[in-house]
Amino acid sequence: MATSSKKQTSKTTVKAKAPVKAAAKTTTSAPKAVKATSTVDKAQVKAFKEQVEKHLRTTIGTSPEKASKLAWWQALVATVNEDIFGRLTDTQQTHAKNDTRAVHYLSAEFLMGRLTINNLTNLEKFDVAREALKEFGLDINDICEEEPDMALGNGGLGRLAACFMDSLATCNYPCVGYGIHYENGLFRQEIRAGKQVERPDSWREYGCPWEVCRPESVQNIPLGGYVEKQTAPDGSQCSVWHPSSMIKGVPWDIPVVGYRGSSVAILRLWESRSTEQFNWDVFNAGGYVDAQTEKSLAETISKVLYPNDSTEAGKELRLTQQYFFCACSLRDILRRYKRSHHNDFSEFASKIAIQLNDTHPTIAIPELMRLLIDEEGLSYEQAWDITSKSFNYTNHTLLPEALEKWPVYIFEKLLPRHLELIYEINFRFLNGPVEAKWPGNNEMKSKLSIIEEGEVRKVRMANLCVITSEHVNGVAKIHSKLVKEDLFPDYAQLWPNKFCNVTNGVTPRRWILSCNRGLAELYNDVAGKDWPLDLDKCEALKKYADKKEYQDRFMKIKHDNKVALAKTIKELCGVEVDPNALFDVQVKRLHEYKRQHLNLLYIMSLYKSLLEDPDQDIVPQVFIFGAKAAPAYTLAKDIIFAINAVGEKINNDLRIKGKLKVVFIPNYRVSLAEKIIPAADISEQISTAGYEASGTSNMKFSMNGALTLGTMDGANIEIVEQAGIENNFIFGLSVEEVQKLKPRYNPWDYYNADHDLKAVVDWLDSDFFTPGQPGALSSIKSSLLNNGDPFLVLADFASYKAAHQRAQKMFKDKAKWAKAAMINSATMGIFSSDRSIKDYATNIWTLKSQLIKK
To answer: Would you call 115 helix, strand, or coil by DSSP?
Structure first.
């Protein structure tokens, strides 16, 4: 498979050329707009050009004549940072002067992607920068390809956090994002012989010009050891933790720019280091490797996102990782608070809101209790009052395996004082609210307890979140309903007002304005230039949805994006695809409940149909996948192999006359999403109803004019409410039907009743797609039949197939499709992350927007 070499590109010398009259060649990064952009101020271009050249010479240490693309990109970033850091200082001074309440967003993931084009767009300097580089003979999109994606997340959870930071800054809410400064992120995915191979994603091997190290805010974090009970002179007892080791947390700050530079927020990421970098005594005694053992062990904590926890060492590392970044973040929060309030904690909860993005940061709860009791001298009651008023919890999943549980024995080894506090919290909860509500009911106590009894006792992190947090929210209407009624119904009886909903959103700045400039220009014309701040304004396009001129323009934008994506597919996958075909896209994390294998079965059935009748009149289709499977998730990796094996067979079969193509784009990430999403005709959102919390890719696709082919799950329901069910393709069982069918479901009934379905499932046992390897795809068939088809793939197959047939029929009616695509795009205002953040600020954080003074 052909892939481009980043290192080779970086070494390429790019000589500055004389000013050029023609526009630089369009790349796949930013599809060409349908209409020319407005005239750019020549004085601004001249000043920007001079700054880039100055930084090229004085910051990077090279000249225009011999600078590489990497050097030009670094000089461009240095120029932009001059503006950003000035605005950052203004933002921080305003918040400090006003002593504002702020939200502190704790998340294990922040999937930021690339920042250059996004920051230029938010500063409204993209056109200026493009013209300045053009005068050097350079294409800004080509130069920005030098930027690696920040490998700080996995999927929707991390991308949501990134969107929220963008909106917090844009809406001028005081905030700090806290996470981990991963050295290698998740992994870089390669496809070899059709199979996923994981490689380190060393995104900052040569540094990252957007981030700044803050050594003045380093934190030392204790770990391990034991707890000693001590008696004070007055007879009271206290616990003293004697840790066995200390880890240094080094903060790296990444500025997050609000739109039009309204304010600049900070994302603070913690890097783990040893408190002792090097043991001289061991080294001098000949232990050259052993001298660095402690350093290596400490640095492992921030090495990768989500270490494999199928081993004991992996479990310990993951819990240590979560504790490390939470402990660093809370110490930093306390440091900031005490600058204005010293040791008076009476206003802490009124000034500090802490949002837990899923259960990964749950350990922050006992850590804040420990800091307040052990280090600040507060009583348990005072500490609990502050803690329970400061934390809020966002639930992102209904899957039991995703609700983290940690063995008690690991807590005893790594965090003995925290386990002691968890026991105390649990004891007071069970003998307080639970006993009052259900007196003498030990079964209910066992059900609601933070501690799960069994052969291995475990700490239920989600229970701890719910018990402590002031608010618990789901991320779509249907999800929040299920969180309250199915996941935590007994807690909802105790605290009915604790549970609420905040439907997710995505930032229109990155997901339209930056990545789809043709569509952005159309919205400038019909809705004015303030729509990126108020996405509801885009609804103005609806009144043009029946007009041929606007339909043609809208679909020309889509076609240009498809042409650009086709070029990327050819570069990365070596497959030629026709931009006039229907582009059917499913890009997301590979998981059984997201049902990429349902999509695969349909592709196989369509292929079988074409083999039987190659001349049938169908719409030519390109099925596009992008996904990473967790390294230990064997079936997910098998599905990736199956998609590639089926694609290899189909793409090279001349009998079907190019009517069907299947593409798996390797190493799916934000920068690829920015090319794929604007080019999609169909957005596959096909999770089993009741399993997808919300989804955010579904919103991005709809904003960019793709029609949703999906189940009534997550935010799909709300998307259809806005855009109309007639403009999308809904199929499958409802949440209620899934719940009703599950107890009596037998996949063999569906397999035996549908001849075509049976034929394609049986194909998986043969070597038709894997010559010489019969049964190489049998694990998928086994999961569907022998393992009970837990996500009802076979039950939804017929309905899914029918939805595709409806989509093909509509695609042939160009005017009808264009109208539906335009309405989808125009009606997505409610899914702006600005609306989500305002909901959080009003209903959960009680946060006020602050006008930034320069």
So the answer is: coil
Q: How far is CA 287 from the centre of its chain?
A: 43
92-138 pLDDT, tens digit per residue, is 999 999 999 999 999 999 999 999 999 999 999 999 999 999 999 99
Assess whether 758 carries a catalytic annotation. no
Query: Quick check: is 556 catalytic?
Result: no
**Per-residue confidence (pLDDT) for residue 261, from 0 to 100:** 84
Instruction: Judge whether residue 426 has pLDDT over 50.
Output: yes
* d(C-alpha 830, C-alpha 834), whole Å: 9
pLDDT in tens, 684-734: 999 999 999 999 999 999 999 999 999 999 999 999 999 999 999 999 999
**Which option is the CATH number for 508-831: 3.40.50.2000, 3.40.50.300, 3.40.1190.10, 1.10.357.10?**
3.40.50.2000
The DSSP secondary structure of 464-481, one letter per residue, reads HHHHH-SEEEESSHHHHH
Pick left, alpha or beta for residue 191 (phi over 0 → left; psi -120 to 50 → alpha; otherwise beta): beta
Question: Is 413 annotated as catalytic?
Answer: no
**397 given a catalytic annotation:** no
Catalytic residue flag (residue 3): no
CA-nearest of 765, 792, 759 to 780 is: 765
Instruction: Give the fold, CATH level 3, of 106-114+149-218+249-405+462-504.
Output: Rossmann fold (3.40.50)
Taking the model in full, what pTM does it have? 0.93
**Whole-number Å distance between alpha carbons of 805 and 582:** 13
Q: What is the DSSP letter of 433?
A: I
Q: Is 696 a catalytic residue?
A: yes
**Residues near 747 by beta carbon (within 8 Å), at least 6 away in sequence:** 784, 785, 788, 789, 793, 794, 795
Residue 139, SS3 per DSSP: coil
Catalytic hit among 594, 597, 804, 835: 594
Options 181, 589, 591, 819, the catalytic residue:
589
Among residues 55, 204, 700, 838, which one is catalytic?
700
**Euclidean distance between CA atoms 338 and 340, whole angstroms:** 5
**Model pLDDT for residues 641-699, shown as the tens digit of each residue:** 999 999 999 999 999 999 999 999 999 999 999 999 999 999 999 999 999 999 999 99
For residue 177, give the amino acid letter.
G
CB 448 within 8 A of CB 440: no
pLDDT, average across residues 613-638: 96
**Among the options 588, 659, 804, 838, which is catalytic?**
588
Active-site residue (options: 121, 696, 711, 770): 696
